Amino acid sequence: MKKINIEIATKNIKIILFFAYLLVYYIFGADTEKVKYSEIILLLFMGLEFLNILKTKKIKYYIPIIIVFAFAFYCFLSNFWAINSELAIDKSKTLFILAVFLLITYNFFSNIENAENILLKIIMYAGIIFSIYIIMYYGISEYFGKLIRGERIGAEINNVNAIGLQTSISIIIAIFYGLYENNKGYFLLSIIPLIVSLGTGSRKVIILIVVGLVLLFILKREEKIDMVSITKKVLIFIIVSLTFVYIAKVPMFSTVFERFQMSINSITGQGKVDNSTQTRATFIKAGIDQFFKTPILGIGIGNSGYITEQATGWFTYLHNNYVELLATTGIIGFCLYYSVYFYIIFNCVKMLKKKNKYTNIVLIIFLINIILEYAMVSYYSKSTYIYILLGLIIVEKARKDYSNEQNN
Hints:
globular
């Protein structure tokens, strides 16, 4: 009994450490000094789990995790043909650390009950508490004053796009729980990160929230479908649409909707286009041109700055995950990286008929990422590997449950 209590206590400590790590990472992600606090917490978590692996002499691995290691190794090899080998080695070190992170965290969460629910709520509550932190950082009156004035909020804390993405994922998860558990409390919780998400003025936020909510309602299947339920859904859709249109006209949210309109203008070729959108388009075109010059191997991971410098004079990344990987790692690196996405999405789609709510939310998160990666580089983001971890845990459990059903 004492041994069982110790095991339960150790498990709970590791869950708390992982939650603390994610929350501190959200808060200090852009501060190179303070972000070390999150790394210390992560080291404690990984150290405890590594000791457990040594004790049990068992380590679990999964084909997608092997692919993640293969991608990191391939990126390391790219230093042999990279323009700047030091940049390639530095980026491959980061990718190898992320692969180890994925392996260790997978070994922990794959061995605990209800891991999918725990992981989802860790991500959700970390985003909600982070949102409260942002509001309190400015003070309630000052924060809402900035909102009313239409200012982009959060730049003093972290990249506003990163804040928007982190808090928006929390919104989607909270509404997911509200729908599937029929608990209105989760809908109320989603309001806090919603206020912060829209306050960032990020165009990605609109896409994430709208696409996420639409997919949630599409994938939410009811056992009983009748005219009453259909009528209710139509009315809810109309009310939400009208509310969204009204919000778009409110001054406090004008920044994000104006910037989104400019993005649409860049696609249609009509109307005003902001400098940010024009610059990103230039980056993407330059990256595609480079891919056609070096389609197989690319110019070396972490070397995209040489492409942007030649195109605009700025040494930076390409602001598009697909183009970034194609230009720097070629078709080989691109296929290695996105084969993990394909594996998770393919298995989630296979489970649609089983009405597995957890594969539904993972499918939504990854479809959103696929859309958003057109305007961001995320292959070396810690958040991306947490979503991959979530996907692998849920897919593995869903496959086991399905296999057990077939055998019975």
